[in-house]
Design brief:
220 residues; 8-stranded parallel barrel
Length: 220
């Protein structure tokens, strides 16, 4: 697999609370140069990035990183992000609902946010590091039933990131129209290839440019 092919799987990501506009611009310039699938940025930067980078696919995060925002707030966040120029939404589920067995609540929330996204891409972050295998499997079913576009392993802010085992588990239990995004824990080029070969259609990382080009031009 060539570096150019790998870049096509990358959501080039910068979500730190201290991210500056200059750092976001560097991220976007890299995304344009290396033709990544998208940039994944904080919601507050969606409008200025859309204004300056008209042809860049913008992904942003909703209910991030803990997921316990009320549903109405998440729906509003998604609507505003899309109006501001986002083409993809990565939402975090309410993990507390899962732990309380309120699976229907999670299903309904995803459906509402999917409706708010209209024809835009919705990725559902389930934060695998906090879940049992049975909970992961149930969430594969829920994400499929809600007609989301992707199931995503992690925020990158939890206790652990993506694992190949989780990607392989997802692949067994998601429906045919759901794709997989792996995020967090990607350390090497070999990791990138391994996740793609395991079934990930997207990888969320801030390290791809450094790993694939040998350049170190960003400060995050």
């Amino acid at each position: 697999m060539t570096n150019e092919e790998i870049f096509g799987y990358i959501d080039h990501t910068l979500l730190k609370a201290v991210s500056s506009w200059q750092e976001i611009k560097i991220l976007c310039d890299e995304a344009v140069r290396f033709k990544t699938a998208s940039v994944c940025i904080p919601p507050s930067y969606v409008q200025p990035v859309y204004t300056e980078y008209k042809n860049l696919n913008i992904c942003t995060v909703i209910g991030f990183p803990l997921g316990y925002n009320i549903t109405a707030a998440k729906v509003l966040e998604a609507e505003r992000a899309i109006l501001s120029g986002a083409g993809e939404i990565d939402m975090v589920i309410n993990i507390g609902d899962i732990k309380n067995g309120k699976f229907d609540f999670v299903l309904d929330e995803i459906k509402l946010i999917k409706k708010a996204c209209n024809d835009k891409v919705l990725k559902v972050i389930i934060e695998t590091c906090y879940l049992t295998e049975d909970e992961k499997i149930r969430l594969c079913e829920i994400v499929t039933e809600a007609k989301a576009d992707y199931i995503k392993t992690s925020t990158g802010f939890g206790t652990a990131g993506a694992t190949l085992a989780d990607v392989e588990l997802f692949k067994k239990h998601i429906g045919p129209n759901v794709k997989i995004k792996a995020a967090g824990g990607v350390k090497t080029r070999e990791d990138l290839v391994a996740f793609i070969e395991a079934g990930a259609s997207r990888i969320g990382t801030s390290s791809a440019v450094k790993l694939l080009s040998g350049e170190s031009v960003t400060s995050y």
